[in-house]
């Protein structure tokens, strides 16, 4: 854990968001240490890299990608180990980091190379540049009318002050934080394993209820679906297109286009999380008024991920928040013969049992196209029976849902602890120069992957400049 020892003396830094820093630490503008580079790939065959606010610069192969890959990556920007890579459009979300890889990134990104490889430990910068203090600086310096369209351009980044401990202290800080990250990653993995066990219990409850019903004495008949087997004889089987209206979103843009339209909040695949949507980070895109009625989400709609974890679904229950969908999300509006909640339970079972994966369109990346989605068969009990089943599922699953929610909250709290720990150490609020690793401070790069978000998807449109 943190050794709560302060440095002997401090001074006020130039950057207003930072706390007092150790007096002997250097502080200079980023342009003193880095220069912008714009080297382009001639073949497009280098390792394709993504930039995440959680994991920094990582190979795209380690991410879930929710859209088709580009036809060619010729002309993409090259980066080297030690380069700082910044997603110009999402810098205000801390989508940046120090690369540990030779690879290529979007032409819309900023790539900054150190004048001297000895000035900074890249891992120290990777921690420092994603702290809240620096994110506040990006926001303050970025250009744009609204947060969803802020851009951090090279001159703005290079004018930011970087605090620079002596290199041996940087190396010690990195060693200490990586050891703490290893402990935190193991904690998160244990909690995620618990969530998987709880989810499997919940899945068994729901699966039986939506395929067999609640009355064990009801006569059964063949459903005509191989994996489903028998079902209550009075139930029907209908394809999705017969019980719901299905709309796939469309590619949106960050810039106003000709014609009548407006900037509106939009939902991406990353907003679609099982049970309920994650709307803590909703951005805006330009939408033509003629398309708003089709793309707007309404209460009771199901939102279904088209890529990434195909079929991942949530139900929209907000009557006040105005949101629209883009082309990695299907909007499914149930017809009167199907309750949205009952349909959601079936989507949950299908997704967790891998039944969407079995039918997806695989070119280079899995995609659940609208053409495929609307042909999927669903069981359709009478509406009154659907209501009874939904009430029963709610009661039976409540203890499991509560346990899952508590566990997710514990993960959130440990992430907040990690953010504070990193900020304290990289800004010198805690002196770790005397720290020595113990027998439990084992760092495993594979285990550190748990620090990322299991549901974090990458889309071509998000990973670029959003203007394609």
UniProtKB/TrEMBL annotation:
UniProt xrefs under Gene3D superfamilies: Bipartite methylase S protein, DNA methylase specificity domains
Family: Belongs to the type-I restriction system S methylase family.
Keyword Hydrolase: yes
Record key words, sorted: DNA-binding, Endonuclease, Hydrolase, Nuclease, Restriction system
Start and end residues of each Type I restriction modification DNA specificity domain: 232-410
Entry's Gene Ontology BP terms: DNA restriction-modification system
Record-linked InterPro entries: Restrct_endonuc_typeI_TRD (IPR000055), Restrct_endonuc_typeI_TRD_sf (IPR044946), Type-I_RE_S_subunit (IPR051212)
Pfam families: Methylase_S
Lineage: Bacteria, Pseudomonadati, Pseudomonadota, Gammaproteobacteria, Aeromonadales
Gene Ontology molecular function: DNA binding; endonuclease activity
Protein's UniProt name: Restriction endonuclease subunit S
Source superkingdom: Bacteria
């Amino acid at each position: 854990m943190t050794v709560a020892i302060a440095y002997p003396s401090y001074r006020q830094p130039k950057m207003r968001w930072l706390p007092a820093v150790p007096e002997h630490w250097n502080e200079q503008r980023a342009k003193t240490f880095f220069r912008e580079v714009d080297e382009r790939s001639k073949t497009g065959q280098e390792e394709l890299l993504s930039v995440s606010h959680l994991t920094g610069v990582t190979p795209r192969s380690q991410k879930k990608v929710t859209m088709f890959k580009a036809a060619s990556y010729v002309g993409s920007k090259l980066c080297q180990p030690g380069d700082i890579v910044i997603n110009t459009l999402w810098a205000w979300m801390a989508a940046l980091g120090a690369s540990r890889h030779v690879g290529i990134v979007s032409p819309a990104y900023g790539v900054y190379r150190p004048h001297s490889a000895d000035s900074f430990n890249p891992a120290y910068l990777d921690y420092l540049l994603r702290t809240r203090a620096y994110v506040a600086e990006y926001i303050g310096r970025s250009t744009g009318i609204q947060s969803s369209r802020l851009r951090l351009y090279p001159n703005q980044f290079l004018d930011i002050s970087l605090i620079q401990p002596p290199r041996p202290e940087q190396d010690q800080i990195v060693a200490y934080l990586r050891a703490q990250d290893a402990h935190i990653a193991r904690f998160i993995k244990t909690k995620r394993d618990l969530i998987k066990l709880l989810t499997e219990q919940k899945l068994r409850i729901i699966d039986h209820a939506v395929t067999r019903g609640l009355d064990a004495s009801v006569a059964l008949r063949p459903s005509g679906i191989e994996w489903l087997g028998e079902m209550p004889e009075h139930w029907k089987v209908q394809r999705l297109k017969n019980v719901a209206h299905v709309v796939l979103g469309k590619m949106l843009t960050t810039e106003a286009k000709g014609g009548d339209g407006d900037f509106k909040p939009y939902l991406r695949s990353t907003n679609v999380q099982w049970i309920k949507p994650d709307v803590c980070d909703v951005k805006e895109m330009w939408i033509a008024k003629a398309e708003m009625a089709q793309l707007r989400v309404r209460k009771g709609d199901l939102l279904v991920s088209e890529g990434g974890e195909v079929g991942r679904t949530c139900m929209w229950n907000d009557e006040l928040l105005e949101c629209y969908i883009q082309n990695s999300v299907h909007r499914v509006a149930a017809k009167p013969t199907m309750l949205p909640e009952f349909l959601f339970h079936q989507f949950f079972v299908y997704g967790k049992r891998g039944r969407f994966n079995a039918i997806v369109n695989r070119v280079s990346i899995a995609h659940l196209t609208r053409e495929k989605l609307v042909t999927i068969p669903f069981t359709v009990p009478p509406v009154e029976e659907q209501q009874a089943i939904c009430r029963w599922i709610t009661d039976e699953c409540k203890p499991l849902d509560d346990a899952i929610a508590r566990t997710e909250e514990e993960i959130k709290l440990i992430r907040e602890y990690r953010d504070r720990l990193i900020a304290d150490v990289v800004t010198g609020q805690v002196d770790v120069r005397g720290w020595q690793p113990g027998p439990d401070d084992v760092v495993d790069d594979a285990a550190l992957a748990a620090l990322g978000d299991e549901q974090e998807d990458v889309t071509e449109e998000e990973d670029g400049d959003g203007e394609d």
